[in-house]
Design goal:
- The chain is an all-alpha fold and 62 residues long.
- It has one domain (1-52).
- It is 90% helix and 0% strand.
- The protein has helices spanning 2-23, 28-61.
- Helix 1 (2-23) packs across helix 2 (28-61).
- The N and C termini lie far apart (39 Å).
C-alpha cells in the first residue's frame, strides 16, 4: 500500500514539474504531460464541486 501511495505522489510531483517546465517552454512531451496534468486537475475539481453540490442539495431536502 505504501508503494502505491509513493507512486501516486511521484506522479503528482512529476506532473507539477512538467507544468512549470512547460510554462518555460519545455520540449513537446513536457507540454503534453502538463496538459494531461492540468486536465486531470480540472476533472477532479469539477467532480468535487458537483459532489459538494449534491451533498448540499441532500441537506436542504431534509
Amino acid at each position: 500500500m505504501i508503494l502505491l501511495l509513493l507512486g501516486v505522489l511521484a506522479l503528482a510531483v512529476g506532473g507539477c514539474v512538467c507544468v512549470v517546465w512547460a510554462e518555460r517552454g519545455g520540449p513537446r512531451w513536457v507540454r503534453i504531460v502538463a496538459a494531461l496534468t492540468r486536465g486531470a486537475g480540472e476533472l477532479l475539481s469539477t467532480a468535487q464541486k458537483s459532489r459538494r453540490r449534491g451533498l448540499n442539495g441532500d441537506a436542504d431536502g431534509d
